[in-house]
Amino acid sequence: MVSFFNFQKGKKKLGLLDLEGALTARDRVGIQDFVLLDAHNSETAFLDNLKKRFSEDLIYTYIGTLLISVNPYKELDMYSKKHMDLYMGVNFYELPPHIYALADNAYHTMLTEANNHFILISGESGAGKTEASKKILQYYAVSCPSSALLDTVRDRMLMSNPVLEAFGNAKTLKNDNSSRFGKYMDIQFDSQVGSLFLCHKFLMVSIFLQGECSSVISINDKNDWKTVRNALSVVHFDDTDMEHLFGVIASVLHLGNVQFDGDTKGYAVLNSNAELRWVSKLTGVHVQILHESLTYKRIEARTDEVLCPFTVDHAIYVRDALAKAIYGRTFTWLVNRINESLENQDASRKTVIGLLDIYGFEVFYVNSFEQFCINYCNEKLQQLFIQLTLKAEQEEYEAEGIEWEPVQFFNNKIICDLVEEKHRGIISVLDEECVRPGDATDLTFLEKLEEKMGNHPHFVTRRVRSLSLMSKALSPLSSLCSTGFIDKNNDLLYRHIKEVSGSKNSIIRQCFLSDEVDSRRRPETVATQFKNSLLGLTEILMAKEAWYVRCLKSNDNKQSGKFDDVLVRHQVKYLGLMEHLRVRRAGFAYRRRYEEFLKRYKPLCPATWPHWRGVPSEGVEKLVKHLGYQPDEYKMGRTKIFIRYARTLFATEDAYEICKHELATRIQAKYKGYRAKGEFKKQKEAATKIETCWRGVQARKEREKRAWAVKVIKKFIKGYMTRGQAKTTDNSEYLAFVRQSYLNRLRDNLPKTVLDKTTWLTPPPVMTETSAMLRQIHMRLMVRKYVRGITPQKKAQMQLKIITSAIFKGKKDSYPQSVAVPFVDTRISQYITYSVPVVKYDRNGFKPRPRQLILTQSAVYLIEEAKIKQRVDYVSLTGVSVSNLGDTIMILHVANDDPKQKGDVVLQCDHLFEAVTKLSVLTKKQDAIKAVQGSIKFQFHGGKEGFVDFSTGQEPMVYKGKNGHLTVVSKDFRVI
Ligand SMILES: Nc1ncnc2c1ncn2[C@@H]1O[C@H](COP(=O)(O)OP(=O)(O)OP(=O)(O)O)[C@@H](O)[C@H]1O
């Protein structure tokens, strides 16, 4: 056994582990799978195991993938949502046997193999088939993802069950709620999404009404009534539909109460009209028509019509036939309506799980035509089971050349043939008897059977009007009472009874269409209809893969906890469970074509992954060896590998799951890389594109800019060339530009002071006039600003400067330099208006002597520094002479006639302009100030004369010249 990949995939759901543990522990009772039973040939061991488990409420046991369910007749806590969750996606053998495990496995196999499946639920009446089918449906309904639309379909589907049970089930001696119809439904799953639960469809095989049990303790009519009404509304029945439907049911009940008496001739007359009036009211058929139909037969003879009265027995038969027909057809109508409401409009591909819940085998004290049909159906399904499992299996081993010891089993084909064979089978004989002219009775039918099949090994008749079909496997088909076969098979409604087609009840109208009344074709007999629908069903099932649930009845008393050994042994026998087990034991749990097996599991072996180039069977051999399969675990056939134990396959499947994840991760990584590469390439391409685009845009912009520049330059040049002309379109822009740029430059280069006369930008010709105006305005502005900012002291000084200008401007070379030199008023004392240091040239040899020149309102003094307070050298001034050069010599002329005066005074004064100006103001002798060129003559006291000669030279100096004149050399200011 392969042990290195023993994983359990479903157990990741932690919350469920406790429950699961408890289940597993509890389930250790007996053996979960009969395949593991040592004494697999012993029926007693088989039963013991079932019983042991049953006593612990373990009602499910496997034979391989087949599920055996023993009816517990009590509610078990094993169908909750938690249980459903637990079984979801878990391998078959990982958890205790359960109907959910089978449902889940069928579902996952369907998804994996993408093909159709069906679950055949069989067993005798009351064994729990309907319950099992409901549990499967609920499991799918809960486990599949939901959406609003699907929920609606799901509700309808689940709700269709109580409706069908209400109308199609009846209490029988075997089962309080026995299905009297066969139900096949297709559950569709979306093949793409894989898990959508879509819709189902009923295929009705037949319905049988029979029995006299009316009260059932286990059924609460009041609650069920509510449930049914609610369910009907979910499957789209409105109030009118429901009124008509319940009208039909009530009419059938009233019809059953119609009684007949015999007249003197023995013909039937109505006992009372009351019931018939009710029927008439409920069905909407005139009471007269009903009356006539129930007591007379209408015989048409060419143009005439004759009414032929019924005997009482006959009338009762007709009454029951009518009631059956109304009920049966109404049920068919109901099924069709439910099918319509569940119809799936989506045509996309779906995979299907079919669910077949068919009425179980029935053996009553008296077994009639109904039991014949029901049990024939079960024989047929058993045949299908044998065909699909035992026979097909053995045939396959043979075809594949697998060593195999054939298992003996009873092939009930012989029984099926006995019933259904053309011309020779019981149904053919019955049909023949029904249609032949003359009086056919159940007895003549029995004689015909004896005649035709008296020698058949499985057919025996007894002269107590019964026939026995001896099926070794299926005993219930035996011992049938032939009474009523002819009538029930005929089930011909007398033509005029179909006149109910004129009913006011819409359901009855739809069930009895008038063209049927008019048709003269004889309808198919009941048995033939039944046979045909069964053949149709078999065909549907044969195209699908089968799963089996075998339901066993634990006892006949519907008693919980009771295990009737005889009854169960009987069922085990006729259901062929022992044979099935033997085949399973001898056989192989799983087989697959080499190609398919390899295709699925090749990732598990390096030699086969990713490709196996050789012969598939060799690849498989390599693969299973790599996986560690033991020789007894598998066999290699001609085209397939056969795996003996399911656990081997599950382990392989688990390994595959893990490997798939790894592969998926690898593929994902590769894909991501590929995507990233692609993305990068795309980005690069996009970047190149953007770059190209950007470059194009830039180039275009550049070109446009150049073109614009050329245009501007051209215009500029043209404007420049025509700048002197009057304003034209050519030069207007240029001139505006020139103006603008001149003004801008001018703004930044305006003269800052009023004295700055030089700073002014030369205007372009077009601005000459404007510039002059601007200059004037600017000057005015500056002057105004300057004037506003002048203090009284400054003003006084300015006035002095004006006087200086009047005296010296253009007359003395050093004057311009003096303009910016401010006069100083600090040299003023109490007595002195102005005092300035000077150098006095003494007439005796022109020796320079420092003196202070003091100016007052009334006189000019020359005093020595040390004697400042003494009034010395009073000068009575008559005029002042200066040279026109840049020297600082001034000669004060004094009045010669004043004896106190010592003659003219020659002074050198650094502040010449200031001193002379102030002197002139104080003495009011402005006109007496002279600027002389060359030499200045002066007079000494006593009438003597002297001269001062002025010249310019390199170095300024004052000295006594050879001619005895005072010689003054000054810098040449004009040169500077
Ligand atoms: N799994 C179960 N758990 C509890 N009770 C069950 C179970 N299965 C069946 N039963 C009981 O047995 C009764 C009969 O079951 P069910 O109607 O499913 O039988 P059946 O095989 O469908 O019969 P028929 O062939 O007559 O329709 C149910 O009404 C229910 O009380």
UniProtKB/TrEMBL annotation:
<dbReference type="InterPro" id="IPR036961">
    <property type="entry name" value="Kinesin_motor_dom_sf"/>
</dbReference>
<feature type="binding site">
    <location>
        <begin position="123"/>
        <end position="130"/>
    </location>
    <ligand>
        <name>ATP</name>
    </ligand>
</feature>
<keyword id="KW-0518">Myosin</keyword>
<keyword id="KW-0067">ATP-binding</keyword>
<keyword id="KW-0547">Nucleotide-binding</keyword>
<dbReference type="InterPro" id="IPR027417">
    <property type="entry name" value="P-loop_NTPase"/>
</dbReference>
<dbReference type="GO" id="GO:0030048">
    <property type="term" value="P:actin filament-based movement"/>
</dbReference>
<feature type="domain" description="TH1">
    <location>
        <begin position="797"/>
        <end position="972"/>
    </location>
</feature>
<comment type="similarity">
    <text>Belongs to the TRAFAC class myosin-kinesin ATPase superfamily. Myosin family.</text>
</comment>
<feature type="domain" description="Myosin motor">
    <location>
        <begin position="30"/>
        <end position="657"/>
    </location>
</feature>
<dbReference type="Pfam" id="PF00063">
    <property type="entry name" value="Myosin_head"/>
</dbReference>
<keyword id="KW-0009">Actin-binding</keyword>
<feature type="region of interest" description="Actin-binding">
    <location>
        <begin position="534"/>
        <end position="556"/>
    </location>
</feature>
<keyword id="KW-0505">Motor protein</keyword>
<dbReference type="GO" id="GO:0006897">
    <property type="term" value="P:endocytosis"/>
</dbReference>
<dbReference type="InterPro" id="IPR000048">
    <property type="entry name" value="IQ_motif_EF-hand-BS"/>
</dbReference>
<dbReference type="GO" id="GO:0048731">
    <property type="term" value="P:system development"/>
</dbReference>
<dbReference type="InterPro" id="IPR001609">
    <property type="entry name" value="Myosin_head_motor_dom-like"/>
</dbReference>
<dbReference type="GO" id="GO:0005524">
    <property type="term" value="F:ATP binding"/>
</dbReference>
<keyword id="KW-0677">Repeat</keyword>
<dbReference type="GO" id="GO:0007015">
    <property type="term" value="P:actin filament organization"/>
</dbReference>
<protein>
    <submittedName>
        <fullName>Myosin IH</fullName>
    </submittedName>
</protein>
<dbReference type="GO" id="GO:0016459">
    <property type="term" value="C:myosin complex"/>
</dbReference>
<dbReference type="GO" id="GO:0005886">
    <property type="term" value="C:plasma membrane"/>
</dbReference>
<dbReference type="GO" id="GO:0000146">
    <property type="term" value="F:microfilament motor activity"/>
</dbReference>
<dbReference type="GO" id="GO:0051015">
    <property type="term" value="F:actin filament binding"/>
</dbReference>
<dbReference type="GO" id="GO:0005902">
    <property type="term" value="C:microvillus"/>
</dbReference>
<dbReference type="GO" id="GO:0005938">
    <property type="term" value="C:cell cortex"/>
</dbReference>
<dbReference type="Pfam" id="PF06017">
    <property type="entry name" value="Myosin_TH1"/>
</dbReference>
<dbReference type="InterPro" id="IPR010926">
    <property type="entry name" value="Myosin_TH1"/>
</dbReference>
